[in-house]
Amino acid sequence: MELAGDFSTSLRSRAVDSMQAPGFWGLMLVFVLMPLPLASNRPWLVSIWGVVVGGLVLWHIWRKKSARVSADSTGGGQWQRGRVLFVLMGLWLLLLAVQITPMPIAWVQALVHAAPSPYVIDGSAFATVSIDVFSTQLYLVKGLIFAAVLWLVFSLIDTPKRLELMVKVLIFSGFFQALIAVVLLATGASYDLFFVPIDHLMRGKGTFVYHNHFAGYMELTLSLGIGLMIAKLEDKQVRNWKQRASNWLSLIVSKKALLRIVLIIMVVGLIASRSRMGNSAFFISLMLVGVLAIILSKNATKSTIVFIASLIILDVVIVGGVVGIEKVIQRIEATNLRAYSTDDPAPAVSGDVVAKRDNQGRLRYQQLREESVEARVGPGLHALEISRDFPVLGVGGGTFHLAFFPYRPIEVQGFYDHAHNDYFEFAVEVGAVGMMLLALMTMHSMVYAVRILVNRRDQFARGMAFASLMGVVALLIHSTVDFNLQNTTNGLLFIVVLSIPYLVGAQGRGTKKLTI
Question: What is the rounded average pLDDT for all residues in the chain?
Answer without folding.
Answer: 77
